[in-house]
Amino acid sequence: MKTTPNNTAKKTVRKKTEKKQDSRPLILIIGSAILVILLLFFGIGILPGLLGGDNSRDNLLALARKYMENNEFDRAFDKVDEVLEKNMKDEEALALQDEIQRRKDEYDANNKSTNTNTTIVIRPDDFNTTERYIPKTQLDIPDTASKEEQNRLKKLRDLLIKGTNHLQDKQYDDAKNAFEDALKIDPKLGEAHARLGETWYEKDPNNKDNLDKAKDYSLKAMEEDPTLALPHNTMGQIYEQNKQYENAEKEYKDASRLDPQDYMALFRLGNIQYRLKKYDAAIRSYASCVQLKKDFQKAHFNKGMAHYRVTQWDAMISSMQTSVSLKHDDAPSYYMLGVAQQTKGDVNGAINSFKNATMYEPENASYFRKLGTALIEARRFAEAENAYLSALKLDGSSAETNYNMANLKITTGKHNEALSYAETAYLKSMTTKEYPYTLGIIYENLGQRDQAITYYQKAIDLDAKYSKPLINLGKLYDDAGLYDNALPLLVKAYNLEPNSYLVNNNLGTVYLHKKVYNEAVKYLSKAVSLNSGDTAARYNLGLAYLESEKDFEAKKVFSDIINIDKNYWDAYYQFGRLLVKEGDTKYAKELLTQIITKNPGYDKRAEVEALLSGL
């Protein structure tokens, strides 16, 4: 912003001294310069206020939306956080935060092939199939043709059949000679051009000269006879070879339209649609394929994989079951069948499927790893450990397997044994946030608080939106009495998971310890609503009411706890104190006496006895 002296104003000045005439423009210039400096220095902060808006906030949200559209979700979250740090109740920012999370979840689901902490390494089978559809020659010999014409056509048909037989036997030069001989008789014979295009392609699809010849012959075949499916099929394979998948899809569609019996065109079409993430279309193509060729095992498998991508578990199970019925030793089919069964909750079925996968492909570590996850879900921990040990024998350097074994050891309370596996996982992949988090859990359980803090912080450094280490680290600081350290971590966790019982309970507890009782009541009440059977959050809520001198509410909370847990002696004690305060000595004496009678070793026995002696 630049300002200049007002010339019109200067002209109205009359009979002033030379010094005064010069000083006014100078003052204006100096003032303008100062204003420019002030605006440059403070402008970003004050201009929105002067103009009645908040461009800084709006710009941050606009940037967040831009990052979200570009799938840069962490950067988008950071911009929203900057807005929420100034106003946690900004509804537009909160709504955008939810939208970013939803978009991130969708993006992850579409771009990551993971399930239950185990990588899905299976892909649809595109090429490794011995299945082959051979269209019969379309050359007809009309009865009405002359004898000479019939002989000519018969010779052409014999050459086409001869060349096709050579092609089936992979005698490419003999096949080529037969088709070329046919073209010598009839240079415009579309089928001969089509068969030559197929021959050049099949002879060596990785050879550019072969692909060029295959393309030229196929295009010529389409020109001479637009009803032929074969040249479209060959062109589809050429486009697929060159990764021109949209063009390949079009050619395969034309091929299957022109020859509705060509199940291989439908199979290839399904594969291309799968690559293009058109999973519903791929399912339809595979379904049409297996309707024509019911025993086409790989088509059933690929159909199951497409169902997997759109989370159609029942249909996926049906496809994979058909696949293994057609090929009893197909380990990938058993593996994916197990994935679907585990997702559907049929853990025993999944275990059997994963065991079959390991039996038929015992060198595949991922199958043993997945078997381990299912066995853990069934709480068959000893078998799960054996499965992970088998996976580690095959691939001891796998970060994922070491991580899974560490979690198994944590589940069974063997934290010392878990440590080495967790350390190996972390050293193999130091940018995977779950690995330092797991180390934090282990060190916390081993009583090594400083180490736990270090690794929780490493996990947070890798992903500032990772709520688990935020919660655990906040709880550690709270337990250590470092409430000011705990609070910002748990506030951030709350922004990420506002409906988490654990977050609300821990955040409310920190506020209780900081003696900010209104906030404590707010979050602890929400924690209770999220987990009505929990007594810990209720007890802290009762204490917050007690400290707020809301005795009626506190008494109700302690009463509810006693109804849930007849042995929650601290609730008896606090309820008894309130009754004494109210003068209800009879009921107070009854409650307090129960503590002494039923729990003589109660740590506040002296306080209870003191209360009783005063009744």
Unreliable spans: 1-53, 110-116
Major beta sheet summary: 2 strands, antiparallel
The percentage helix is over 70%
Strand order within the widest beta sheet: 1-2
Tally of extended strands? 2
Give the amount of beta strand, in percent: under 5%
> Which class best fits the helix and strand makeup?
mainly alpha
End-to-end Cα distance, whole Å, is 80 Å
Please identify the oligomeric state: single chain
- Write down the overall geometry: elongated
Output mean pLDDT: 87
The Cα radius of gyration reads 38 Å
Q: What's the tally of helices?
A: 32
Write the layout of secondary structure elements.
Elements: H1 7-11, H2 18-51, H3 55-69, H4 73-86, H5 91-111, E1 114-115, E2 118-119, H6 147-168, H7 172-185, H8 190-203, H9 208-224, H10 230-241, H11 245-258, H12 263-275, H13 279-292, H14 297-309, H15 313-326, H16 331-344, H17 347-360, H18 365-377, H19 381-394, H20 399-411, H21 415-428, H22 434-445, H23 449-462, H24 467-479, H25 483-496, H26 501-513, H27 517-530, H28 536-547, H29 551-564, H30 569-582, H31 585-598, H32 605-613
Antiparallel strand pairs: 1-2
Summarize the structure.
This protein is mainly alpha-helical. The chain contains 32 helices and two strands. It starts with 6 loop residues before the first helix and ends with a helix.
Structural description of this entry:
There is one protein chain. A hairpin with a 2-residue loop joins strand 1 and strand 2. The N terminus is likely disordered. The chain is elongated, with a radius of gyration of 38 Å. The chain has a two-stranded antiparallel sheet with strand order 1-2. The N and C termini lie far apart (80 Å). It is an all-alpha fold and 615 residues long.
